[in-house]
Fold Alkyl hydroperoxide reductase AhpD.
Amino acid sequence: MSVDSLKDALPAYAKDVKLNLGSLVTTSSLTEQQLWGTLLACAVATRSQRVIAEIASEAADALSAEAFTAAKGAAAIMAMNNVYYRSMHLIGDETYATMPAKLRMTIIGNPGVEKVDFELWSLAVSAIGGCGRCLESHEQVLRQAGMPREQVQEAVRIAAVVNAVAATLEAETALAAV
């Protein structure tokens, strides 16, 4: 089980996705923990059992147990936060922004790994979740911590590609039943 297995499973019409997935893993400017944590958090965010299993298998070799757990935690907390903050924004009444969320989010303050890594994973998951408020918030924290825009962009590219892999493989499974 691995990223290579995912690449091999992609159909010919998804050649660009396949090439992008390979490129992300081999040419990353992120640290190994940042890269594999982002891949894992994004895989979990896609909800695709196959993508989660394949990426988790390889990520387990690249990440400490704490980082593996924190990446899953980023996906979990952002699954909640992306819905909440996107909804508060889309309602269009800024009064909601002044109201306490009353949602427990302690993992964000104490993720068990370097805060910048957790923020990067949260940003990538938020790209999949489509929450502009969360993207803005996590990008600000990353930039204030000194992360270059190119690395922020890379995390979003990872999210886009992992999401495309999951969507393509899930579609192929559904189409095979037709």
Summary: Residues 28 and 154 are 8 Å apart (CA to CA).
